[in-house]
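It is worth pausing here to work through a concrete case rather than discussing structure prediction in the abstract. The textbook approach is simple: state the sequence, then state the predicted structure, then interpret. We follow exactly that order.
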Amino acid sequence: MIWTQDRLKDRQRVVHWDLVRSSPEYSVERILDMSPGANQRVYNGFNKGRISVPESAFSDGNFSLIINSVATTDRGVYTCNLHHHYCQIHQSIQIQLNVTKIARKEKRYWDGEKTVFVVLLGSSVALPCVNRRPLWREGLQEDQQQVAHWDFQPPGVRPDRADRLVDLYASGERREYGPLFARNKMSVAEDAFSVGDFSLSISDLAPVDKGLYSCHLHHHYCGLHERRIFRLTVGPPLPPALTAIKSESLTVFPDVERPRVVNVILPEHRGYFMQQMGYILATFLLLAFIVAAVIVLTRRRKKRGILCVCLLIYELCALYVLCCAISCVQTILSTDYKNNLLKERDMTKECNKGEQARCD
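Step two, the predicted structure:
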């Protein structure tokens, strides 16, 4: 709805003040509301004639809340809410009001989040809420505030060098640039602002038409701006339909004689059989060579394994003989003999027993 034109004088603007009390219980109360086409509405009978908003609020943008004869029940956090339903814009401001009975304690300060007023009991105060943007004031012609335009950026051209194609205004004014619109190559619907369709139509596409096309929508009344960018690529023309080619090839001319086709089977060459037999024999020979190589390698490994086993047995036997000899010497040395002859005889016997056992 923002980008369409409805020619309504009342732009569906509303202002309302709310009060949030934290004691004795948390509560929210609507104080008053007002719109351009209606009188302000005060919700609490106690506040009628005591709380108000200037009648010229929607003309000068002053929506301040005026409170006369401030009472202790007026303390709390006040919120000024501005709603623009047509432009879908909502703004708000918070002000805290405290009441005191001592005149020297009256002050106004900022607590980091909102403005705080400390007001003397029974006095009058104006809680400020001022917004002088044209959006919230009357007397403006909305028809001149809505603009749409298309730009064209050829390949290799910077955005600030783009060509302007057309400007559209909600009042009905249209400005076309360049020869493209003069030749009716490009066009935009006449009822663009009525239906919200600002599409750009391009006919007879050519390679020179490729590039970036951007659509800009400006709503100065609502302070909004939108943009859409499209990349157009133009390829070579499509080839003729295959169906047309097939239909032409299937056309029958009665006066033209159809060619006759004769199938001829040629015998195979005489050496073909010998060639195949040669391939088969070569394959068998290769397999036989591989099998023979595997058998030879296996036998060699087995022989090497037997030789290693024999060497290992021989080494073990030598080690055993050495151990037996050492034990014989130790036994003889440990025996106490009366003379050397007996000692030599016993040593000879022990050694002979060790050699006989080794040979066995």
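Step three, interpretation. The CA atoms of residues 34 and 135 lie 16 Å apart. The chain has three domains: 13-136, 142-232, 316-360.
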